[in-house]
Amino acid sequence: MSKRVLMQGNEAVVEGAIAAGMRFYAGYPITPSTEIAEQSSVRLPQVGGTFIQMEDEISSMAAVIGASVAGVKAMTATSGPGFSLKQENIGYACIAEVPCVIVDVQRSGPSTGLPTSPSQGDVMQARWGTHGDHPMIAVSPSSVSECFYKAIRCFNLSEKYRTPVILLMDEIVGHLREGVEIPSVLDVEIINRTVKSSEGHQPYEGDIHEIPGWHLNGGGRYNITGLSHDLSGFPTNSNEITDKLIRRLMGKIEHNADDIIEYEEKYLDDAETVVLCYGGTVRAAMSAVLEARKQGVKVGMFRPVTVWPFPERRLKEISPKVKRIIVAEHNYGQIVLEVERIVKNDCKIDFIGKVDGTVITPAEILKRIKEGK
Amino acid sequence: MPAELINKYMREAHLPHIWCPGCGHGILMRDVAQAIEDLGLDQNKICLVSGIGCSSRAAGYMDFNTIHTTHGRAIAFATGIKLARPDMNVIVIAGDGDIAAIGGNHLIHAARRNIDMTVVVFNNDIYGMTGGQFSPTTPTGDFATTAPYGNIDRPFDIAALAEAAGASYTARGTAYHAPLTIKLIKEGIEHKGFSLIECASVCPTYYGRKNKKGGSVELMTWQKENCVMSDKAQHMSKEELEGKLVIGRLSEKDYPEYTEQYKKIIEKARK
Lengths: 373, 271
Ligand SMILES: Cc1ncc(C[n+]2csc(CCOP(=O)(O)OP(=O)(O)O)c2C)c(N)n1
Ligand code: SF4
Fold this sequence. Notes:
- The complex is a heterodimer.
- Chain A has 13 helices and 16 strands.
- By secondary structure, chain A is an alpha/beta fold.
- The longest helix of chain A is centred in the N-terminal third of the chain and has 17 residues.
- Chain B starts with a helix and ends with a helix.
- In chain B, strands 2-1-3-4-6-5-8-7 form an eight-stranded mixed β-sheet, sandwiched between helices.
- Chain B is an alpha/beta fold.
- Chain B contains 13 helices and eight strands.
- Chain B has one domain: 3-Layer(aba) Sandwich (Rossmann fold).
- Strand 10 of chain A pairs parallel with strand 2 of chain B, so a sheet runs across the interface.
- Thiamine diphosphate binds next to helix 5 of chain B.
């Protein structure tokens, strides 16, 4: 049994998060993510959870990490300027290995930019926004239904790999309203962190599926720090231990790329041209592809659902078999850089980028598909 | 017994500490441990949260659930912890820069919410960890590595700031007045709501040296000779209090506590 409801992308994120076990939300209002805070303030107390409106985005991120280390699944949501403010503490969650979910509903930037206009200008910030080498997972939904399921997936990935995960939305998807099936019994697995409690246990030892043992259940009184630390969680100045720590942090995502990475492909079998897009651009791309196909053009679509880590291996399999990849994104050229790095000279790379705050239309993509043919 | 206190509450494997000889922070850390011992609290039910600074290193030395966070954000992390686990005793240790400069916004808002936590400020009137720059509590006219011609900033009174923002318990102790400071920290922990105990520390390495005020002994002698208890200070004029530091309990109010209020929200939402 499921019920079909008309829902907005931002609302679906909250429902998905609650289904995944979110019981804490801290945030600060900002367009176009505000509905996530509003909906969380309504829904969380209904399920015994907690919502708090903090004084800014820095403290929101901090409170989310605090709640998570205390054993509660936690999330925050923001846009543009707020995403910038969260960065320092996102890095803290990376090095301290604290599971949590950060939703970024992208809007036009830089700075206050065009606050209500769509953009995908935070893609590189999602990857490298905090200082220093760090792992990152970012998932980009393109429909309201996906907002629900990808929110669950973000929580699952964060719990499993004990790392912050970014649900990288954009204004288009966040404010999209459409009918979605909300299952009454969840048809996906919910992953919960493993918790260690035994005295004398090294919180950061063991395999990557284990969460650092610091928790408030009594027993092991652990220490958590953003300083470089050893397996016990205490600070160290050792270059050797630091090297191991950073390599393990990067490695836990790199070595599990197959489990983490998700992508979607359409009509690639005979495609000569591939449109590569993600998030809110997918719909326009898909209708352009369908229209071009009707007109006899051999075109397909490749869509990273997990933007970070990028589906590098799969793209490298596709690129030698096609003549051209058209990257369409709402920015000056961010994912296209990643595509160029991976594809190299395998095929031609074309780019459609918009920075005026308007959406890329199917007609624009169709025109480009036909132009280069 | 100090040795027993160390055995019970310090992580001896992580000692000796990084603090300079004569630093006041060690005395204040001991005061926190003594207050917890006197109250007979369960070690597993205490969560110690700190930011970044010399003072904040205390978290790593003390044997509780400890979290050493980012500069200025200890109270914000602590807010998440307290809301997730209202049954925990949440104690924040922070420096004056940590709590009143970069973390000033979190201080006033946590005070306004009156969320149940105890903030113990190790106030040495300077940025110790980064090498002696002036802080929001450095007195006007004092010297620091970034105030080579004398500080023109006016200092904050952290306890008064917290009280004005809505903290329901504020007090001031010093590194010198250990028994009093222990008593105040105890009161703060027992108090339901946002409590702040500002503790005058000493930083002989930077503050003492830069201001030619001598070492630890001289700085603590100043504390010994220039502090006035709050009940006595009430009957003194502004002129009489000039150059003095008022210590003791400063304010105590009966405001609704945040996690209790949120419990009521949950009840309402579930009806
Ligand atoms: C975001 C950020 N800015 C600056 C610093 C550098 N920093 C570390 S500690 C500190 C000040 C410490 O002074 P205080 O809080 O008074 O504590 P003390 O060291 O004197 O005990 C500063 C500026 C930092 N770690 N993070
Ligand atoms: S620099 Fe100052 S505050 Fe820091 S440990 Fe030394 S004496 Fe203490």
